[in-house]
Amino acid sequence: MEKGFNWMTGGPQGSGVDTAANIFGRACGYGGLYVYGRREYHSNIKGLHSYFHLRVSSNEVSANVNDVDMLASFDAETVVRHISEIVPNGGIIVDQNQLDTKILEIPTLPMEFKQIFQEFMKENGIGTLLADLLEYARDKGIHVFEVPYMELFKQIASKLGIGELNKVMRMINVLTIGISFGLLGYNIDLVEKAIKDIFGEKPKIVEMNLFALEIAYEYAKNNFSKEFNYRLPERVVNEERIFLSGNQAVAIGKILGGCRVQTYYPITPAADESEYIEAHEVLSTKIPDMEAGLLVLQTEDEIAAINMASGAALAGARASTSTSGPGFSLMVEGLSWAGNNEVPVVITYYQRGAPSTGLPTRHGQDDLRFAIHAGHGEFPRIVLASGDIRECFYDAINAFNYAERFQLPVIHLIDKALANSSQIFPIFDISGIKISRGEILGEKMLEGMEYKRFAFTDSGVSPRVLLGTKNGVHWYTGDEHNEYGHISEEPHNRTKMMEKRMKKLETVDKEVPISEKINFFGEPSAKNMIVSWGSTKGAIVEALNELSREGYSLGFLQVRMVHPLPREYVKEILEKAERIIDIEMNYSGQLGEIITEKTGILMDFQIVKYNGRPMTTTEVYNALKLVLDGKAPKRQVLTYGT
Amino acid sequence: MVLRWQDFKSDVFVDWCPGCGNYGILTALQMALAELALEPHQVVLVSGIGCSGKISHFVKVNGVHVLHGRTLPFAQGIKIANPDLEVIAIGGDGDGLGIGMGHFVNAGRRNMDITYLIHDNGVYGLTKGQASPTLKLGLKVKAMPRPNINEAVNPVIIALAAGYTFVARSYAYDTKHLKEIIKKAIQHKGLALVDILQPCPTYNNINTKEWYAGEDRIDPKTGKPTPRLYKLEEMGYDPVVHDLSEDFSKKLVAMEKAREWGDKIPVGVFYKNELIPTFQERITQRIPFYVENPPAKQKICDDAGSPITDVNVLFKELKVT
């Protein structure tokens, strides 16, 4: 397994960690490298620890590994928190002025952490100061690069003629980037280009940051260059490539897919998507002199968000709302209305650690069953689960096509790990993308016709008329209704109407090709078959490739349409397997349970994780290997992460 | 073809109690639509849950019978997608001022060009007579086991505070007055509220038709009842904000008027201000072609189904080559 180079930067929230990662990632991108970066942060505005874990490789990567090769710290806490992740021969960039920090007196370290860390210090005979911890690191073969941050800031301030040191100290992120790239001997021009991208509209800031970069870069080269062996190679790549997050991928997918109304109530980790769209609300089209607009509306709550989106959909706009678990909980009644009224509305559901407020900024895939079952009564819906940032883009488009073709709510399940991670990809191929709006009747077609919004049909889908169409007055109601959309409590009608609606699940099953519902990796007839869904994909595929190279017989069934589950296909694949391994980011193994429910096939092994941090390739590889070697318990719980 | 109000009747049987105030509201609404020469397909009636919620099935215009308390979100969603539609939200006082109060207030902040009619009878009828948010403290209508322990809200005052730009009150049994007020509300540019006082003959045995008519208050001189309702327009009251500088003072006067209850209850237009930009106007500041090419009417793909949106600009921002 090519681990690549793993860079981590961390510091107090609000001190520029994100920007650092963005600059680092883009600089790598300009050098022809691929990057996967995971953002971790507290539910806090300023002060608590946040970090970015970036994996750099010459191949496309979509998961982290356990190791950190270089830790660029803003503060003492970052070193304390991540010391155990740094590999021998790796490096720590640390502020010289922090060496006297008393570890257990760092105010932002929580009690639970201190208890464990105290044990660790005792076991390893580490003294009370950060300097003692760094001594321990040196003993492990880790290079410690003590940098006098304050001296460098003073130097920068005096050369730029800036009186207030605070203004310069804000550039701590660029300072640590400069040191990092100096140590790596990377082409500074590429880093400068990245800095210009990020601060492009503010020439003064660009100038300051470029200067800080240069000072730090030179400092590292002059003082430490011989101590550190890692080098980042520059590669020549001809294809066009983009660096984007899951939030952005969904947003662009929606824009391209024809979404024209998006409602939302602020919630992590969904809100970034709506804000991105709002910032780009005026859209260009391929038709000369024609502009389009995607209207983003921040509502008073998620109840308004879902119902406004449904209203917009009835009027004929492709409409969606984005939320997370607590918001989706509020949307449930509206979802049931949309199901009953066959509304083509899309809900982008960014899962995070739950229940309740849970882990608002951390990862989890706890809500598969909730997404499938939410809402009183039985009604058809589609639930899609994207496995990586690229799939987020295509599924965002598919979601609208399904919603309008089959006239039902579509829930697009994403999660925090996809939303907030960023990755470099070859630019997405959009040449084959099609928009399918389903059957819509216009004014002419309706002439002389007695229109019935909910006419009984074989497929369960009735031709749609948009509100406002001449000759097409029609009705909707949350009550059970007759073909006209008027309230009906008649038993005969009820039976037929239930069957009409539910029939759509069969229609979906029949009409949507398996290639849009399942991704398969490895050998179809493998003895060992993995099942999973969502953002575990990256780590699993990589682990599978490695284990296959080692000679294990392994396949991976990634379920992308989790509802309606393509049960025949799943059954056929799983029946042949000797060992089925369910890998999920939740406590119960929810997909495994659903597969059992739908196919009668039991999961043999479970690999689960629910500590709020996504699975790494390393973890998945190790856990799978135990299973394949017959050494694993039925259930393994993964715990890596800080 | 000019439509008569009867042309706005649907084929659905009207199942309200005999003597219900809803009948007056239904007729007034149908008359208003006919007199404004609106075509049925241009109108969307978004109704809530409760007896009044069924009204969308009785009118021959597009009807969207939604969830309890959620008329305004649906109505606003429809309106933003297609601002050409005449959108009328309609529901009970429990629907709009109890479970839907959050939306009631927030709709005022947006001032979309829609109309909101509240059937205000002080009770939850369809669940058999519990107190609604407009029933006064201490009153006990007949099905309530105990007197009302909550204060009442005043929809007119809340609407004024929330930013509604047309606020009026009328009475279900004065069809002519109500029709005129509904017409004004529909024609108003901005968010219009009509609080419609309405007896519930089955469950509200206090604010009855006879009570509103003042049959308990016989004028000793004429021997006739003294009605409780009086019309603002007959008192020389001017609800219109002619200049933004008088907005706040006009609002205060309206609020003061709206507090009147008991022996003298004003109906009519309390406040009207067309100087506040509507939501549609605000959006047009940002998306200039919004009105001509609104979300519901935008072409999103060509005849072959290929998207017509160009996302290359977005990809360009993200490029690392």
Strand order of the largest sheet of chain B: 2-1-3-4-8-7-10-9
Topology-level CATH name of chain B: Rossmann fold
Low-confidence stretches of chain A: none
Helical residue percent of chain A? 25-40%
Largest sheet of chain A: 8 strands, mixed
Unreliable sequence segments of chain B:
none
Shape type of chain A = globular
Biggest interface and residues each: A-B, 83 and 70 residues
Could you tell me the strand content of chain A as a percent range?
Answer: 15-25%
Q: CATH homologous superfamily of the largest domain in chain A, by name?
A: Pyruvate-ferredoxin oxidoreductase, PFOR, domain III
Structural class of the helix and strand makeup of chain B? alpha/beta
The CATH level-2 architecture of chain B is identified as: 3-Layer(aba) Sandwich
Explain this structure:
The complex is a heterodimer of chains A (642) and B (321). Chain A has 642 residues and is an alpha/beta fold. Chain A folds into four domains: 5-224, 3-Layer(aba) Sandwich (Pyruvate-ferredoxin Oxidoreductase, domain 3); 244-426, 3-Layer(aba) Sandwich (Rossmann fold), CATH 3.40.50; 443-511, no CATH class; 514-638, Rossmann fold (3-Layer(aba) Sandwich), CATH 3.40.50. Chain A is 40% helix and 21% strand. Chain A has 22 helices and 24 strands. In chain A, strands 6-5-4-1-3-2-16-7 form an eight-stranded mixed beta sheet, with helices on both faces. Chain A has a seven-stranded mixed beta sheet with strand order 11-8-12-13-15-14-21, with helices on both faces. In chain A, helix 1 crosses helix 8 and helix 7 (172-184) crosses helix 9 (203-224). In chain A, 56% of the residues are buried. Chain B is of the alpha/beta class and 321 residues long. Chain B has a single domain (5-282), classed as Thiamin diphosphate (ThDP)-binding fold, Pyr/PP domains (Rossmann fold, 3-Layer(aba) Sandwich), CATH 3.40.50. Helices cover 31% and strands 16% of the residues of chain B. Chain B has eleven helices and eleven strands. Chain B has helices at 22-35, 55-58, 71-81, 93-99, 101-110, 155-162, 175-187, 209-213, 247-258, 279-286, 312-318, and strands at residues 43-47, 62-65, 86-92, 115-120, 123-124, 130-131, 166-171, 192-197, 229-231, 265-272, 309-310. Chain B has an eight-stranded mixed beta sheet, sandwiched between helices. In chain B, strands 5-6 form a two-stranded antiparallel ribbon. In chain B, strand 7 (166-171), helix 7 and strand 8 form a beta-alpha-beta unit. In chain B, helix 4 (93-99) crosses helix 5. Chain B is globular and about 90 Å long. At the A-B interface, helix 1, strand 7, helix 10, strand 8 and strand 9 of A face strand 2, helix 3, helix 5, strand 11 and helix 11 of B.
